[in-house]
Design goal:
Layout (H helix, E strand, L loop, with lengths): L9 H14 L2 H4 L5 E6 L4 H6 L10 E4 L16 E6 H11 L3 H16 L4 H13 L6
Parallel strand pairs: 1-3
Antiparallel strand pairs: 2-3
Length: 139
């Protein structure tokens, strides 16, 4: 498919990420606890090596932390989990798939939030396919 790549400033991208979080279904959004959403241009070298990336543009987002299903109630004063959105990769993905950048950000954030709730990669992808089949894909 493919369209012209939409490039925006990091500030504009961060604003779209905040708006994407607000678009998440309320029943999930209100259960997100101790999570920071970060925006980086591309994964750093350490992350790229750790994940054996062939290209810095192949990783759209990354969840790091302890999923809610594995947390203990006494885990107070812990650093927040993080979802990192990789701006250049998401912009390239949106252009390649011919989707609005806002939707690509939303889909990536929703995917990483799935990991926050304890889903592994297979579980997240299965639920994404189910959402798509039901016509729930955000546009």
């Amino acid at each position: 498919m493919g369209t012209r790549m939409e490039r925006v400033s990091q500030r504009a991208f961060e604003k779209m990420a905040a708006e994407a979080f607000e678009r998440l279904p309320g029943r999930f959004r209100e259960k997100v606890k101790n999570l920071a959403i970060l925006v980086e241009d591309v994964p750093d070298r350490r992350t790229a090596r750790e994940l054996k990336l062939r290209s810095p543009l192949e990783l759209l987002g990354l969840y790091r932390g302890v999923p809610q299903t594995a947390r203990h109630n006494d885990a107070s004063f812990t650093l927040p989990d993080t979802v990192t959105l990789y701006q250049r990769a998401i912009e390239a993905h949106a252009a390649h798939d011919g989707m609005p950048l806002r939707d690509a950000i939303y889909e990536t954030l929703w995917h990483e939030i799935g990991h926050h709730f304890g889903l592994d990669e297979h579980g997240v992808r299965t639920r994404e396919r189910e959402r798509f089949r039901r016509g729930k894909r955000s546009r």
